[in-house]
Design goal:
Blueprint: H1 3-18, E1 34-40, E2 47-55, E3 63-72, H2 75-88, H3 93-107, H4 116-122, H5 135-155, H6 157-164
Antiparallel strand pairs: 1-2, 2-3
Helix pairs in contact: 1-2, 2-5, 3-5
């Protein structure tokens, strides 16, 4: 990776850490499906509580209508939560799960990244490519993604989408939120 690209990625992470998107709980709409998850990275003490509200007007294609969170931790965990918020707000649940799978693949790349098309799907989340070189920091970047997956599972919205839509990636096995701690 070129030095200028690394600097740009670092700047994206710093910008999101300084002005995180989605920070601060929003009131949930009465009668709407929602989920909440609290995740802790015991290695470093980073933690997050995430609330996700779903639009189920079309029960075959539920979408994430809002993501809000409160948390504390390093700039990587806070920036990752901010980027996640931007990526999944307004997206169908199945697409959000797909993006989570791609981000986990990115974190397993050991800093090599993914192919260009997959990185395009991740947008600003590709800024975390360099984080994948540092195993201790990977858990920081994945904290918010573990919380999102947990909200999808505990809200019941995943059961609805898996019953009506084919899996995006049959080769990826589900991970419990505990595995990303």
């Amino acid at each position: 990776m070129s030095s200028s690209l690394e600097q740009m990625y670092q700047q994206v992470i710093l910008d999101h850490a300084k002005s995180p998107h989605g920070r601060g709980f929003v009131d949930l709409s009465e009668g709407h499906l929602h989920g909440e998850s609290h995740q802790i990275n015991p290695t470093c003490g980073d933690e997050v509580t995430m609330r996700v509200e779903f639009d189920t007007a079309d029960p075959k294609v539920p979408t994430i209508s809002s993501v809000s969170w409160e948390g504390q931790g390093c700039s990587i965990s806070q920036a990752s939560l901010s980027v996640l918020t931007d990526l999944v707000t307004g997206a169908p649940v199945a697409e959000s799960e797909h993006l989570g799978d791609l981000f986990r693949q990115l974190m397993q790349s050991r800093g090599k990244g993914l192919d260009e098309d997959l990185e395009d799907e991740l947008g600003d989340a590709t800024a975390f490519t360099g984080v994948a070189q540092f195993p201790a920091r990977i858990k920081c970047a994945l904290l918010g993604w573990a919380a999102l997956r947990d909200t999808l599972a505990t809200s019941g919205v995943l059961a609805d989408t898996h019953a009506t839509q084919p899996a995006l990636d049959q080769t990826t096995s589900p991970q419990s939120p505990q595995e990303n701690r």
